[in-house]
């Protein structure tokens, strides 16, 4: 059968065009990368009934079901109503209406996350819980943004290659009365982290507060519990990362040691910033490009508007992007507004940073 197919319209409902004419792949969102195993039977049913019998674990932690014929898209959308309701509304509390038309937008992409501290001994935070709260702020929206949450500075969730990356951090407390001077924490910091610990002449540990990334390796290594994590959770916010053919780049630190309330306050301003940068006309243009278009200072002004920063938070005064350019420079204007490396100078100092 021949159809006059509006590819952009179908894409809005999370169906991706195949190289086979008239075939599409459904991308089912999994906020935070963790989902109840009961939904696997739904994936199987869709794949066998309307797809080609396979599914792909998408690199953004989605269920990708290929081989769906255009004429079957309405039936698939009808079938996934309950899944969307339970995952997006009941679980993430997103403000949206469920109908037979399937997903309302592909704009705010599926939030990625590592497994976090529900399992991983390295992780400082519960990545699924934070992903659910962020999902409520950004989905649904026709303004595009890619977000990932990593439980610790190992960054298994690839936060550095997102428009907006969030990395779990901890603030550590040193109990010198427990210290046995073994140096395990110093060696762990030297081998796995930023080498800010050293043993002094008294057999106790000194810490250079300049470059601690809040990973918690010292806590894991210590046999005497001389290091403990403070109860409050902190996060590093990284912005402007991206892959791509022309100008891939790694994101730079925007805010260090932000609390959850600070993170959520900033994300709540994302759509406002996107609307301003695009003159209130949504385009398929992701966040890093919008920051380039607006410039870092304007981005910072809008994204921090009304946000009450916690006292520990450090905000970069400026960011200078370092991009890899895979293209000829002949008669081509650079799309990035900032080059070179980012500054580490914060807006204000913070104790024990």
What features would you describe in this structure?
- By secondary structure, the chain is of the alpha+beta class.
- The protein folds into 3 domains: about 5-90, Sulfite Reductase Hemoprotein, domain 2 (Alpha-Beta Complex); about 110-170 and about 235-315, Sulfite Reductase Hemoprotein, domain 1 (2-Layer Sandwich), CATH 3.30.413; about 170-230, 2-Layer Sandwich (Alpha-Beta Plaits).
- The protein is about 25% helix and about 15% strand.
- It has helices at about 5-10, 40-50, 75-80, 80-90, 125-140, 185-190, 215-220, 260-265, 270-275, 285-295, 295-305, and strands spanning about 15, 25-30, 55, 65-70, 110-115, 145-150, 165-170, 170-175, 195-200, 205, 225-230, 235-240, 250-260, 315.
- It has a 6-stranded mixed sheet with strand order 5-6-7-12-13-14. A 4-stranded antiparallel sheet has the order 1-2-4-3. It has a two-stranded antiparallel sheet with strand order 8-11.
- A hairpin with a 5-residue loop joins strand 3 (about 55) and strand 4.
- The longest helix is centred in the middle third of the chain and has 12 residues, at about 125-140.
- It is globular.
- The protein starts with 6 loop residues before the first helix and ends in a 38-residue tail after the last strand.
- This is Sulfite reductase subunit C.
- Keywords: 4Fe-4S, Heme, Iron, Iron-sulfur, Metal-binding, Oxidoreductase.
- It comes from Clostridium saudiense.
């Amino acid at each position: 059968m021949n159809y006059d197919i509006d590819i952009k319209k179908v894409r809005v409902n999370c169906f991706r065009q195949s190289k086979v004419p008239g075939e599409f792949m459904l991308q089912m969102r999994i906020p935070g990368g963790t989902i109840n195993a009961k939904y696997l039977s739904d994936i199987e049913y869709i794949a066998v009934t309307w797809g080609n019998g396979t599914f792909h674990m998408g690199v953004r932690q989605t269920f990708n079901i290929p081989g769906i014929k255009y004429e079957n898209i309405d039936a698939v959308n009808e079938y996934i109503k309950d899944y969307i309701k339970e995952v997006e509304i009941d679980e993430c509390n997103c403000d949206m209406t469920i109908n037979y038309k399937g997903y309302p937008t592909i704009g705010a992409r599926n939030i990625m996350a590592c497994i976090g501290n529900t399992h991983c001994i390295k992780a400082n935070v519960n990545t699924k819980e934070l992903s659910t709260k962020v999902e409520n702020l950004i989905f649904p929206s026709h303004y595009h943004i890619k977000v990932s949450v990593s439980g610790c500075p190992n960054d298994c969730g690839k936060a550095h290659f997102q428009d907006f990356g969030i990395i779990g951090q901890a603030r550590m407390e040193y109990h010198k009365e427990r210290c046995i001077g073994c140096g395990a924490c110093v060696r762990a910091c030297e081998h796995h982290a930023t080498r800010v610990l050293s043993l002094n002449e008294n057999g106790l540990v000194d810490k250079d507060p300049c470059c601690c990334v809040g990973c918690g390796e010292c806590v894991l290594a210590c046999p005497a519990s001389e290091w403990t994590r403070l109860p409050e959770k902190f996060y590093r916010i990284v912005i402007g990362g991206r892959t791509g053919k022309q100008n891939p780049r790694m994101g730079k630190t925007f805010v260090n040691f932000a609390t959850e309330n600070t993170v959520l306050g900033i994300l709540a301003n994302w759509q406002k910033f996107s609307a301003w940068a695009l003159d209130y006309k949504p385009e398929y243009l992701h966040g890093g490009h919008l920051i380039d278009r607006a410039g870092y200072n304007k981005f910072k002004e809008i994204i921090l508007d009304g946000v009450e920063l916690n006292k520990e938070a450090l905000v970069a005064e400026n960011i200078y992007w370092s991009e890899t350019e895979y293209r000829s420079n002949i008669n081509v204007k650079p799309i990035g507004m900032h080059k070179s490396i980012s500054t580490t100078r914060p807006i204000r100092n913070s104790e024990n940073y």
